[in-house]
Amino acid sequence: MESNQTERWLGMKDLCRYFSVSNDTIYRWINQGGFPAKKIMGRWKALKSEVEDWAQHAGHLGNEAPLLFPDEYMGIDLPWSVFTFPLPDELKCPYTHVSLFSGCGGIDLGFRQVGFKTVFANDINEDACATYEHNLGEITLGDIRNIELPEIDSPDVLTAGFPCQPFSNAGLRKGVDDERGDLYLFSLKAVEKLKPRGLLSSKHNGQLLIEIIAENLYSLGYNVAFRLLDASQYNVGERRLRVLIVGTKRSDKKLGVYSFPEPNIRKELCLRNIVFNIPCTVANQGEVLPFSPQSEMLVSQIPEGGSWKDIPYNKLPERLKKIADNIKRYHSPKFYRRFHRDDIAGTITAAFTPEKAGIIHPVEHRFFSVREVARIQSFPDWFTFLGGSVKSKYQQIGNAVPPRLAYELALAIKAVLNGKNLLVGKRFIPFSRFKTQTTPVKVTDPQVIFNEK
């Protein structure tokens, strides 16, 4: 063993990341006695070797028994590390937040951590509401179209994660003509009634529908900024593309000017550092959807980093042979994709089917567990998912906006509420020019700004 003179000391932030727990948990271990931390110059520190020895004999801690991460975890800003437990006291949160189509609370978790008190939240899904209430607090269950909106005078921000299926490829892009698209129209009515100072919404890509949304919000008195974001460039270990739309009230002269945070590519947020070595005692880690017999047979033949294309032709089921025989016609799909441990995860979808999403563990012949997909989406380990089935928990996570992405956006919105101009020195495309574009929106495109001349 190294001597104390050369051995590494771990500070409080290092210890939290080492164990993937909050600083409150570390303090509790210290107070319980036995945890090998020492106060040096007013700060708690511990020798790495002593921490490892303590962890080997920590079985008496039950569900809080830690599992050490590999050395490469040290110093990494893991996606969920910003979320404290307990969360900031709502009574001390200086900003107000109304949440529509809240789901299990991905957006609301990010905003709460930044200092927003959610004064109203709603969702129609009973399991999602149970998860929300367990982790975040009160939420109203039911169809928002049949619920009276609260009498709130100009909340600081309204978020509306309205259902994106009508606007997606899977939903055949029916948009506002779909029954669920009617929920979008209700969101506009909510904006008109509550008159929030700022607003945030998320949707799938689709230029025409983005134009409609931007023009609708502008007509209601809001300057609008939108951009196609990849969550993996905003401290989330998942390649997830969504258009984020932010509005700020033009008549509120105390507001600053919004601009999206700059992207930051972080290759270290790969699956190796997100889903490997999760303790079996962490909530939802033991919940895994079983394979069908056919999927089990196929997955067992797919190497790490591979897909169905690596399976010998004679072992493919007939439906996949048909695709393999005419691969160009089917646009070379990557069914049964198994990402490598050093890859950033693909998009976690609510459908959670192996044909359409890379949801197979890199080295184990199984789907990702509920906890593993929660980590991919940046939920902290203390955020427990409830529901009547494992499938329901996958769906809640797949429908959520990654809370770390919401956190990054909330920080920017908070700055605008405090009068800061974030657009200074930033690239952007005027909305008038965006409307004449004939090429699809890309992640590399600057943000689009639609504001008062």
Structure description:
With 453 residues, this protein is an alpha/beta fold. Among the domains are: 9-75, no CATH class; 90-266 and 404-450, Rossmann fold, CATH 3.40.50.150. The protein contains 14 helices and 12 strands. The strands form 2 sheets. A 9-stranded mixed beta sheet has the order 6-5-4-7-8-10-9-12-11, with helices on both faces. The chain has a 3-stranded antiparallel beta sheet with strand order 1-3-2. Helix 5 links the parallel strand 5 (116-123) and strand 6 (140-141). It is globular.
Question: What brief labels describe this structure?
Answer:
14 helices, nine-stranded mixed beta sheet, globular, single chain, alpha/beta, Rossmann fold, 453 residues
Give the strand order, joined by hyphens, for the main sheet: 6-5-4-7-8-10-9-12-11
N- to C-terminal distance: 67 Å
CATH topology-level fold name of the domain at 90-266 and 404-450: Rossmann fold
Strand content: 5-15%
The CATH fourth-level homologous superfamily of the domain at 90-266 and 404-450: Vaccinia Virus protein VP39
Uncertain runs are 59-72, 167-173
**Strand segment tally:** 12
Write down the CATH class of the domain at 90-266 and 404-450: Alpha Beta
What is the residue-averaged pLDDT? 87
The CATH architecture designation of the domain at 90-266 and 404-450 is 3-Layer(aba) Sandwich
* Number of helices in the DSSP assignment: 14
Order of helices and strands: EHHEEHEHEHEEHEHEEHHHHHHEHE
Structural class: alpha/beta
Helix content: 25-40%
